[in-house]
Amino acid sequence: MAAEEKGTKNLTAITDIDRVIHEPARLLILSYLYVVESADFLFLLRQTNLTKGNLSSHLMKLEKAGYVNIKKKFVEKIPRTLLSLTKEGRKAFHEYSQRMKKIFKELPG
Amino acid sequence: MAAEEKGTKNLTAITDIDRVIHEPARLLILSYLYVVESADFLFLLRQTNLTKGNLSSHLMKLEKAGYVNIKKKFVEKIPRTLLSLTKEGRKAFHEYSQRMKKIFKELPG
DNA sequence: CAGACTAGTTTGCAATATAGACTAGTATGT
DNA sequence: ACATACTAGTCTATATTGCAAACTAGTCTG
Fold first, then answer.
1. Buried/exposed B79-91: b ≥16 CB within 10 Å, e otherwise
2. Is the CB of B64 under 7 A from strand C?
3. Which residues of A touch B67 (CB under 8 A)?
């Protein structure tokens, strides 16, 4: 390896960061979904402190990316939206996590 | 600690992520500056593969945040822009790095 | 049946990121 | 001498986001 690449060989990985996951609000959402397997809209709303509109649009973006399943059902006449990670979403999150770990591990900070 | 907080105690840290540094393009720029101490515009341009306009605006944002020093000088009649981390920038980057490490270390991904 | 609450979506706005056009000058080829 | 190409950026325009307030639709309660 060339001398000028020392300590920077991992930096190219930064370019390939998954932007869908990288956004803090979505990283937060995904972190919860990764842990609890399934959650409803209001649970996420309370945990994340996002506004409803904001949470809604982030979830739609995650759904569009194929990372999250949005299932709507009724529980005693009250609508409930259930969120869960898709297989893809779980994989993408794991990969993102690995990538970030690697980036910061190799950085001299 | 309450049971429902298991595995999620670190997630609040996500909310406080420094957005200036978090943006991949700037993370990349800062990573280089962190390693090499000082670099000129064209070096960063080549290393990062950003366009000139894009690099310029990111640098301005970093300068505005107080993270980067922009010094312009002439080298044999040719203008050269030298970039370096400020003390603050170095500290912020280090803190960001630590925070991210912690987040991903405690995440079950 | 009026008011308040649940559960979200739609809309509008402000900030960002990105690329392309533009400026200003230098070196090189003919 | 003049044009072409290169260095070194900045400025401007646009497209995409992230975010919050307003709105929809229906349910519960006094």
1. eeeebebbeebbe
2. no
3. none
End-to-end CA distance of chain A: 21
- Domain B17-103 annotated CATH 1.10.10.10: yes
Report which residue type is found at A50.
Answer: L
Write down the domain spans for chain A. Answer: 29-106
Q: What is the SS3 assignment for B27? A: helix
> Does A14 contact B31 at a Cβ distance shorter than 8 Å?
yes
The contacts of residue B63 (CB under 8 Å, 6+ apart) are: B69, B70
Assess A49–B contact: CB distance below 8 Å, yes or no.
Answer: yes
* CATH number given to A29-106: 1.10.10.10
Which pTM value belongs to this model?
Answer: 0.89
Strand C neighbours among A 6-35, CB < 7 A: none
Question: pLDDT (tens digit, 9 = 90+) per residue, A11-58?
Answer: 778 999 999 999 999 999 999 999 988 899 999 999 999 999 999 999
Q: Is A54 on the interface with B (CB under 8 A)?
A: no
